[in-house]
Amino acid sequence: MADSDVYEVYAVKYGTLAARTRRDNFIAADDHERAMPIDYYVWAIVNPQRTIIVDTGFEHEEGKRRGREILRLPREGLSMLGIEAAKVRDVIVTHLHYDHAGTLDDFPLARFHVQELELAYTTGPYMCSDAFRHAYTADHVCTLVRRLFEGRVAFHSGDEEVAPGVTVHHIGGHTMGIQSVRVRTKRGWVVLASDACHFYENMERAMPFPIVYHVGDMVMGWSKLRQLADTPEHIVPGHDPLVMQQYPAPKRDLEGVVVRLDVDAKR
Ligand SMILES: [Zn+2]
Ligand SMILES: [Zn+2]
User: Fold this and answer.
1) CA 95 to ligand 1 centroid distance, Å
2) pLDDT tens-digit profile of 183-224?
3) Per the CB 3.0–4.6 Å rule, which of 75, 202, 231, 247 could disulfide with 106?
């Protein structure tokens, strides 16, 4: 394995919502009234040859509309890590929900990697129903369509390589076209699940997240994540505050903002 195929991987926290209960995070019968905060992340995959960003968060305006506070814009969090969003060439967008596909304009040179099914889903008949539409923002989808007409969208269908050591994998379930990202690191294959698994508990207790296009695909998707990762400890859920506690910050002044995922968790 060449060094150019091995990466460092970072989770950058850009937002949080403390006022959230377990009813918002699990479909199944559960202690629904108990508090269960959620964190919002973007991810960076880095080695000396390339930098690939996974997801782009949302803007202050969008946060206001949905009652969520942004701690820092994704580009500001990335810059704390020494990454200039304006220079990034490749951005993987796991799916187009508002908290994953905003701020696209902060990446003016990037090509956006999406699953073909996700753009079909968000521009087709399912969006006639608020049940599927409510977690999307029309402006984000329209911005991506504009980038498509500038030749800056790369479509993927199923499992494909984005760069040596970085692959995307269609999972489905949460949305029709959600994809997860697998990265080769010095501790083995790490899988950035994004919203294919929001919290460790979704997978560990087999309790689906309530925002869902197809529950069966969501549950089967967890098996696929397990197949892709070296061990269950190599799967990184998309919104779990535990990620910030279990992995080390790369530097002291980044504590609480950035953690390193290519080293073992403290779990
Ligand atoms: Zn989502
Ligand atoms: Zn999300």
Assistant:
1) 7
2) 999 999 999 999 999 999 999 999 999 999 999 999 999 999
3) 75
Does 267 score more than 70 pLDDT? no
CA–CA gap between residue 233 and residue 190 (Å, rounded): 9
Q: 267 CA to middle of ligand 2, Å?
A: 23
Residue 175 CA to ligand 1 centre (angstroms): 7
145 and 104 Cβ atoms separated by less than 8 Å: no
| Ligand 2 centroid – CA 58 distance (Å) | 10
- What pLDDT does 29 receive? 64
Q: Parallel, antiparallel, or unpaired: how do β-strands 235-237 and 188-194 relate?
A: parallel
Helices (H), the chain: 60-66, 74-80, 116-122, 130-133, 138-149, 200-204, 215-228, 242-246
Collapsing DSSP to helix, strand or coil, 185 comes out as strand
Question: How far apart are the CA of 99 and the centre of ligand 2, in A?
Answer: 5
CA 257 to chain centre: 16
Confidence of residue 44 (pLDDT cuts 50, 70, 90): very high
- Measure 174 CA to ligand 1 centroid, in angstroms: 7
Q: Which of 54, 61, 65 is nearest to 110 (CA)?
A: 54
What pLDDT, on the 0 to 100 scale, is given for residue 1?
62
Tens of pLDDT, residues 89-128: 999 999 999 999 999 999 999 999 999 999 999 999 999 9
